[in-house]
Amino acid sequence: MKGFARRLAGQLARGLVMVWVVLTFTFVIISIMPGDPVRAEYENLLQQGYSPEQAEAQAAMLHRFRPTGSVFEQYVDYVGSLLRFDLGQSLYSRVDVATVLADAAKWTVIPVLLGTVLSFGLGVVVGVYAAIKRSSKLGDMLTMSGSLLRGIPDFVVGLLLASIFATLWPILPRQGAVNILYEPWTVEYVLSLGYHAILPVATYTISAYGGFILAMKSSVVTVLGDDFILAAELRGMKRSIIFRYIARNAILPLFTVFALSVAAVFSGAIFIERIFNYPGLGMLLIDSIGRRDITVMAGALLLITVAVIIANIVADLFYSVIDPRIRRAGDRV
Amino acid sequence: MTLATAAHAPEGGTTAPAVRIRDLTVVYKTPAGELPAVSEIDMDLPAGTITGLVGESGSGKSTLALSLLNAVQPPGRISSGTVEIDGLGDVVPLQGDKLRRVRGGQIGYVFQAAQNSLNPLKTVGKQLLDLGRSHDVDDLRALVSEAKELLGRMGLDGARVLDSYQHELSGGMRQRVGIMLALVLNAHVVVLDEPTTALDMITQANILEIIRNIHAERGLTTLVITHDIGVVAEVADQLAVMYGGRIVERGPVRSVLGEPRHPYTQGLIRAIPRLTGDIDQARALPGRPPTLGTIPERGCVFRDRCELRMSVCDTVEPVLERHADQLVACHAVAGQEPDGGAPTDDGQEQT
Ligand SMILES: Nc1ncnc2c1ncn2[C@@H]1O[C@H](COP(=O)(O)OP(=O)(O)O)[C@@H](O)[C@H]1O
Ligand code: SF4
Ligand SMILES: [Mg+2]
Fold this sequence. Notes:
The structure holds 2 protein chains of 2 kinds.
Chain A: H1 2-32, H2 37-47, H3 52-63, H4 71-83, H5 97-132, H6 137-151, H7 154-168, H8 187-224, H9 227-234, H10 239-251, H11 254-275, H12 281-290, H13 294-322, H14 324-327
Chain B: E1 19-30, E2 33-45, E3 50-54, H1 61-68, E4 76-85, E5 89-90, H2 96-105, E6 107-110, H3 124-134, H4 140-153, H5 158-162, H6 171-183, E7 189-193, H7 201-218, E8 221-226, H8 229-235, E9 238-243, E10 246-252, H9 253-258, H10 263-270, H11 273-276, H12 311-315, E11 321-323, E12 326-328, H13 331-336
Parallel strand pairs in B: 3-8, 3-9, 6-7, 7-8
Antiparallel strand pairs in B: 1-2, 1-4, 4-5, 9-10, 10-12, 11-12
Helix pairs in contact in B: 3-4
The complex binds adenosine-5'-diphosphate (ADP), iron/sulfur cluster and magnesium ion (MG).
């Protein structure tokens, strides 16, 4: 597994560099934000009668760096507290940013993953079918549906679904994630959760689906033309076995597509959640910008980036675990 | 029309079946309609012999070979003819599961060397087990040891090869794995399509020796396809020369190579320094072989490149006729030697 370890190390190093770039970026935003919010907070506290030391400590707790330090000192403070997973406090609610993020994250991560996985399953099956039937009308239609759907931006899909199923023909809710009148984890509560999740999840599913169909179709068509498939046929292999050969070889490149889709759907969630007033990270990011709640904004940005990076790393490593050409590269000659 | 060649029976009696191809035509669907890649071919693979099939790329060799397994790929199809194999009957009408069992079970097919005939995601051993399960082999352990033995005989470490993925094997090793997979179920008819193409010279020689040895040991009926006439010179007993979807000359290897009669065979041999023995005299065959769309419908398929072309060649297609040991399809040869010509001094030699 030497090759695998090397690959993992490389991926982690690249991921860390990207995280570092983003956190530096959020730091720059916070420190150059018009009106210097840290400084403003500090002066505000001074005016309220705090001593300079108290005011400084208080402001530092919010922002994780001292308002009076040099830029370099502030940066060191900032990175240091991030390393301790201390993201400061919300300027708006004074709750720990970490808590705010964790609350919001579950409303994004679960529906996004659910939507992408559903879409993956659907797209793979339909893609295989479109590949096998590629010289028939039905195959053409399936492929075209894929190209069409891929061309529609995800927020348009969201708006369309919202106007059809929540406005024109109001059978589905577009407000929030659950009916808050229900007691948590009762049957009604769980049903209400699912009910509220339908539109966002459907949006994620539909917007990722076109990409999966097209990728799977072209992958299957490529594998079908590979020599080893004909060779297996000429050796009299059973159809079911040949089908498995095709499926496994064709699905491999799809994991990259999957990672890219998770990342894309994740970033798309910023607008989709807004459409459905769904309380995830995207809503949080937009709300925090509206409230000038810079700590939360920076935290949400950082978390979204890290999630996207992790999605990519996981997919790449997954790919290398199931593809022996990569997994065993370097193990033997 | 049959060629009277009593084949050598392999030592210890023969289990090898003979193969009789009759009037075989295979067409491919093209924008210009269905065009024949193999036209009305008659050919025998005598039991227990190695038959070489040579011809430039595009002459229809692979198409003919796939017909033996009734495995011509769409948009192609066998439009007429029969392929009879002793003990199996005609394979052309076979379908479905019955056809599948014949492939691999009775007829082994070895793919071109450099190409990838293995699933890149599974070890050779796992694919061997898949093969065994496909053919309802009860004793998979015996199958594995049989495979190891075959690999061992070909100079490979069987256990290690079975534990390897395709990308971990060299071209020559892959080719040997292909041969093993074609033989491990005890097929007695074996087709090797370009078995040495893309291998280096030493590996080529090695593979040819393996083919010869295993052929003799197992009592096989073997068809070796190649565009390299030097390869057949080394392994084959019988030789068939293909051009534009037709067999233009065939007979015992010695006669065909020693005294080629068809202008195309002569050109092929002249083009090879190894055989003429003189590099300076080797000269490439001028012109290019026809493609499906440019094969003439009437007359001789070779006439555009032929120095002996006559007016009859434009209108009448020459049929295979006997000349001493060989069958030759050429008007010029027919004119010169109507009775089969002068006897050759090795006229009685068959292999
Ligand atoms: N799938 C196909 N579709 C159309 N034409 C084909 C196809 N496969 C082979 N052919 C044509 O049939 C002829 C014979 O091909 P092939 O049997 O592969 O020749 P060889 O093996 O001697 O190189 C060639 O002219 C080739 O272009
Ligand atoms: S039949 Fe005519 S054109 Fe054809 S090979 Fe013989 S002489 Fe040449
Ligand atoms: Mg070929």
